[in-house]
Predict the structure of UPF0738 protein HNQ34_002644.
Amino acid sequence: MRKTITIKRAEKRGQQILLVGDEPPFSLEGAIPKRYMLTDSDHLSFIYILEAVDEFIYVFIPQKFWGEMKEVLAQSLNVFLQAGATELELIGFKEELAYLIENIEGNANYGEEMEKAVKDTFLT
């Protein structure tokens, strides 16, 4: 079964954004940031990948938090994940997000709705 964490809240803490996720029914002990992001065009989400022993953990960042993600890029903020009692920095988040946004612009492979949502949030 695929392990996922969905972000429920985003908070600015000084020069950081804290993404607060649901408490996972699995341990994040030993999980490391993969420095890689994907998209879920069907659910208008960005997905940050964590790597655990022999598996990946997918951190879903829904569209309602994209305003905070735009702030991450504009102010060069560091991004942290809090899920249950665990907190860890999502290393490479800014670079991966910027790359995805650039790649999505004008690219029909992501779907019209995703392309429009990204354009409306990040490119206006």
Q: What stands out?
A: The two ends are 38 Å apart (CA to CA). Residues 93-104 form the longest helix (12 residues).
